[in-house]
Amino acid sequence: MLSRLSLRLRIFLFFCLLALGGIAVTGGALWLGYTRAGQPGLTDAFIFSGLLSSFAMLGLCAGVWLLFDENVAKPIERLAAGMRARAHAGVNKELDTHGARYLGDLAAAAQGLAGQLGDSALSAAEAIARETEHLEAEKARLAALLTDIPIATVMASPAHQIVLYDGQAAAVLAQEAPPRLNAPLSDYLDQTGLEAAYGRLVRSGMEVQAEVKSASGSQVFDLRLKPLGGAPGYIILFEGAHAGLAPDDSRPLVYDFALLETEHAELDNRKLSHLSYVVFDTETTGLLPHKDEIVQIGALRVVRNRIIEGEQFETLVDPGTPIPAASTKVHGVSDAMVQGAPDIGEAARGFHRFASDAVIVAHNAPFDMAFLRRHAKRAGVSWDQPILDTVLLSAVLFGASQSHTLDALCERLEVTIPPALRHTAMGDAQATAEVFCKMLPMLEARGLSTFGAVIEETRKHGRLIEDMN
């Protein structure tokens, strides 16, 4: 059980035990001396001596503990977090060893190991980059081929989750909801009709044709469902007759074949790498959620520890009130820019659909979520998605005593925010997403591989910021 406690807490408990032990020994010695003295008139003197020595013992232990905490426990935590960042998050800058100057040769040894690891990682990265360049070229050719063929193509897992979609399919899916990797097909197609067609496919093992309504019932799609041979899942081809395809629609090919192996488990038991995330940020008219308003929302999706190209949500929001000049100076959104933009009800509904099947991630989530939840009734939505906060994740990985601002995290994990994008909703969302993607393997390396384990750990830092789950 003690091994689950942080190093700083264990050292604190050790000194508490040392202080209590010292007080007990001193008290016992004074009691023995008093009983041997056999002089009742010395009672007050013995009690005074006992109290004085007890307070002195407490003060001494507290002082030495503070020195240990500042010069041993905190530096060890920072050193461990720094090495973990280099081992699992691709950070290459030198370790800050000044804070660990009282740890003997440990800091120098860690720096040497980190440097060796960095050289090895660089060599491996160069080899991977050469292979990746070839794979990216093949992917680009495949994407161009699929996009040029006037048949929208979607690959789905046996659980009817999207595994692949091409540019044509993105245009079709967008007529119902934002196209999203790992999203349920029931967001786009009538679930009853789709499952009936899939049942025929499973029974026959051969291609089947079906007319399936859209999820909203506003249109009908001519579909062809094809099996994947011995692999799980199936392919859906949208015939163009009712698809409403535009001839110039283009979009990157989006896929992750690992999603074919669908994990069926409760959220708390699901691995972090198997979840879908929506990372978002807002810009507002001020810093008071109970009276200020949102003027911009930016969000993007992370699946399998990577940001999905093209899956973004970005909108200006008409706050219905003048934007203070001081706020415009920070985020650059002016009254003229939000004229004709959707109000918060419409914008929140759109964002809610984009994030409906994902874990929401934000930096200082209570602030952004307070704005959205205040207008939940107006938007007709319920913000009950699970939430991760990068402030709390930072406290878990780097220690509560460290700085947890977005700028500090970006510097620590070598994430660059272009100055023109800082304090814009999409710019900050992009930075938060990159930070989050580097945090995920670090959390898993700490043994926090499931959502439930991470939430249990973040709740230990509730004094920093409210946990939203």
TrEMBL record:
Organism lineage string: Bacteria, Pseudomonadati, Pseudomonadota, Alphaproteobacteria, Rhodobacterales
GO biological process, one term: DNA replication proofreading
Top-level taxon of the source organism: Bacteria
PANTHER family, alphabetized: DNA POLYMERASE III SUBUNIT EPSILON (PTHR30231)
Protein's job: DNA polymerase III is a complex, multichain enzyme responsible for most of the replicative synthesis in bacteria. The epsilon subunit contain the editing function and is a proofreading 3'-5' exonuclease.
Record's subunit section: DNA polymerase III contains a core (composed of alpha, epsilon and theta chains) that associates with a tau subunit. This core dimerizes to form the POLIII' complex. PolIII' associates with the gamma complex (composed of gamma, delta, delta', psi and chi chains) and with the beta chain to form the complete DNA polymerase III complex.
Stated name of the protein: DNA-directed DNA polymerase
SMART domains reported in the protein's UniProt record: EXOIII
Enzyme class (EC, first level): transferase
GO terms assigned for molecular function: 3'-5' exonuclease activity; DNA binding; DNA-directed DNA polymerase activity
Keywords: Exonuclease, Hydrolase, Membrane, Nuclease, Transmembrane, Transmembrane helix
Ranges of residues in domain Exonuclease: 276-445
Annotated Gene Ontology cellular component terms: cytosol
EC number(s) recorded for this UniProt protein: 2.7.7.7
Transmembrane segments: 12-34, 46-68
Keyword set includes Endoplasmic reticulum: no
Organism: Leisingera caerulea (Phaeobacter caeruleus)
Reaction equation(s) it catalyzes: DNA(n) + a 2'-deoxyribonucleoside 5'-triphosphate = DNA(n+1) + diphosphate
